[in-house]
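Q: Got a minute? One more chain.
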Amino acid sequence: MGIRAVKYDASTDIVYGAITHLRATISTDSGGACSGSIDGTGPTTDNGMMRFKYYNNAGELQTRRGGGNLHADNVTGCGGLINGGDVLTYTGHASIRSPSHLVVNGITSP
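A: Always. Here it is, folded:
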């Protein structure tokens, strides 16, 4: 996994970019039959990508809808809820702070 900063807006102190080289596994907690993988252009390409905004003043990373290339692959036993080739999105927030002093990590240049 990598992080690529694309743009820094000094007026809002926000960094825009992409999280790259994403690949994940889908499975049920109890070892049930639903399984598969999440990737970009193919099941083993390790090129999944999603966009983000990083708020320097708060140390908050927010993933954004759209602009990514995540797809489900090799899906089995999910009862049609997820199918191979489905386009996927993930949105979420994460605080990114230095663990020793809880200091916000700032990014000012792509």
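A: The chain has one domain: 2-104.
Q: Perfect, thanks.
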